[in-house]
Amino acid sequence: xxxxxxxxxxxxxxxxxxxxxxxxxTETYTITPNEEIYNRNLMSNSTYNEYTKHYYLIRSYLxxxxxxxxxxxxxxxxxxxVSNVLFVPSNVTIKxxxxxxxxxxxxxxxxxxxxxxxxxxxIRPSLxxxxxxxxxxxxxxxISIIGSGTATIDLNxxxxxxxxxxxxxxxxxxxxxxxxxxxSGHFIEIDATKDTVISNNKFMNSKPSSTEIKEAINxxxxxxxxxxxxxxWSKFDKTPNSNMTIKNxxxxxxxxxxxxxxxxxxxxxxxxxxxxNKIEKMRQDAIRVLxxxxxxxxxxxxxxxxxxxxxxxxxxxxSGAINPTFQNNVFVDIPRAMQFIAWKNSDSxxxxxxxxxxxxxxxxETLSTNTVINYVEDFIRIxxxxxxxxxxxxxxxxxxxxxxxxxxxxxxxxxxxLDFMKIYFTRRYYYSSIQxxxxx
Length: 440
Description:
Elements: H1 2-16, E1 27-31, H2 53-68, E2 71-75, E3 78-82, E4 86-87, E5 92-96, E6 100-104, E7 118-121, E8 141-147, E9 152-154, E10 162-167, E11 170-175, E12 178-183, E13 186-191, E14 194-199, E15 202-207, E16 215-220, E17 242-247, E18 250-254, E19 256-259, E20 269-275, E21 278-282, E22 287-293, E23 296-298, E24 301-305, E25 314-322, E26 325-327, E27 330-332, E28 336-341, H3 361-367, E29 371-373, E30 379-383, E31 395-398, E32 400-402, E33 423-424, E34 430-431
Parallel strand pairs: 1-2, 2-5, 3-6, 4-7, 5-8, 6-9, 7-10, 8-11, 9-12, 10-13, 11-14, 12-15, 13-16, 14-17, 15-18, 16-19, 17-20, 18-21, 19-22, 20-22, 20-23, 21-24, 22-25, 23-26, 24-27, 25-28, 27-29, 28-30, 29-32
Antiparallel strand pairs: 30-31, 33-34
């Protein structure tokens, strides 16, 4: 009888508090650049020195958060120079307070290991140096890096540096961070990841790479054939990204804002949404769509893309776009607002067949909602045949055009300081003033 009653009580508690509704207790740790390491044993390492102390400091707390099943690490105001990669486990939020600055260090002060190129990788510390650990979306989950005020991640112009590498993850948030000073790497490299929000960040200032196609946010697949992903803990299974929203960000003075530069044959990044961003002063096509299905690019402002010697650089260049919704964007001082072309990887990844766009009549009608200002072309080009760009093989989609007010010849270097005032369509369209802020 007693056993029966105990069983009944257990079942009742399970009904009232099912296991998946009980949240595990999580810890919050707050550190400064001068904080003591959580695991003081690390301080006895011969490689602990003035160049590696912040690496060991943050690493020690991330290892503890893995041990405890997650929690929050708060970095208070100050500079944290990180010499080597920090592995981030599931269920962890890293908060950068106003005035916190994470800098990519280039020295270790020891001959035992060199400085790493990346700062954060989203894989638990205990597995970060293992091989072929994760495939599909089976890696770490529920990771956020959130800033406030002037919180900064500075790549320090280190060649091929990357601030954040995400792969085989789910439920990722990156918000309110000032990403600065890139050179031939990426601020964010994201592969094989599902359910991501990247919002309210600034991605600013890069040195030109040799190809000038290095994106602030690189959307890629882990594919050894394309040679665009090198994290050995991946199974390199070519999994594309799914359900990614990039909104309310500023991109300024870069090779390229967002894009993919190699595709895996038959694999499509699905449901990529790019909305309400300000993109200015790009050296190449500002957004490079390559094997994206059901993507939405809307309500963005593009300004001042380098025209190149052929006056042909674009705000958006798309190949392998399936059912795209690209609408209500504004393009200012850009030679070509948008172009759709068939494409084939060159060099690495060239084993894959040509990839083609697939646009419905509704997709094409939506393209006409975009607006160009100070334009060379008042239309969007669609070239369905591979390497056929003449008039006979081009479909032209007319777009809205507008007069521009007189803008300052030089700006402060921050696109958010520009006020586009009011502009009026030269046809029968009216476009209300482009506001300083963003819509949600």
